[in-house]
Amino acid sequence: MSSTGESARYWESPQLPGVDLLQARYISKTFTRHTHETYVIAAITGGVEAFHHGGSVYKAGPGSLALINPDTLHTGHAGAPGGWRYEVLYPDPRLVARIAAETTSLRGTPGFTAPAFHDPVAARWVQEVHRAVDEGNALAADSVLHSLVARLLRRNGGPLPARAVHPAGAAVARQARELLETEMADPPALEALARRLGTSPFALSRAFRAAYGLPPHAWLTTARVHRARRLLDAGLPPAEAATAVGFTDQPHLTRHFGRVLGIPPGAYQRGRARTYKTREDVRS
User: Fold this and answer.
1) Residue 272 has what pLDDT?
2) Fewer CB near the terminus (10 Å): N or C of the chain?
3) The whole model's pTM is what?
């Protein structure tokens, strides 16, 4: 635990493939607008978390869960003095889709409908998954996880709606995203990007925001964090991962990595199985 009283433990376990886990205590931590490539199932175990989602602010306390679908913009901060504690599961979309197909009648891509959902039973099951993983009980962890996801989808689930985008704008946004992904380490400026796509900077920004919820530069920052995470998983040192994805240096990666995942990249890489300091000025 740091001198601020904040701590976080982020890891993956062979007992539960396809799922990352987080246990954290945050007081003044603020998560900027970002997305995850996975689902987020966060059981609040103390205090109150507040977060922006879909134009509204939600709060979740003990017995409630924060539920975020993949590629969905949201933030995170303390919803009451003293901050919040939570235990979080980040299941892969393919895993959730399999559970949905086996246990529900949902059609299309499954998702959670209410982002803040009071369900003490489900919240307790999140903690049981964490406990089973810590005890090395793969059967219990996987069994409770399947029951948890099935329960949440039956009680608070539905097919994810497609984002409404004009076909021409959608094509431009998709092409821009592909170019930014390909040239992430040295991306073109907005005007140059628009020129390459045969449109104006304003039209490009509008189409991109309509498709992905963020302007190109903000989307690129989050995309860089996710790619850096994969490079860290592959064993690349944080300083090299930073420059590989286009950040100026490791401190820039550290700042943005913490705003999305809540811990520094070096701490994330060190096994994902210990308690980490979460101060913004940590350089690891």
Assistant:
1) 52
2) N
3) 0.86
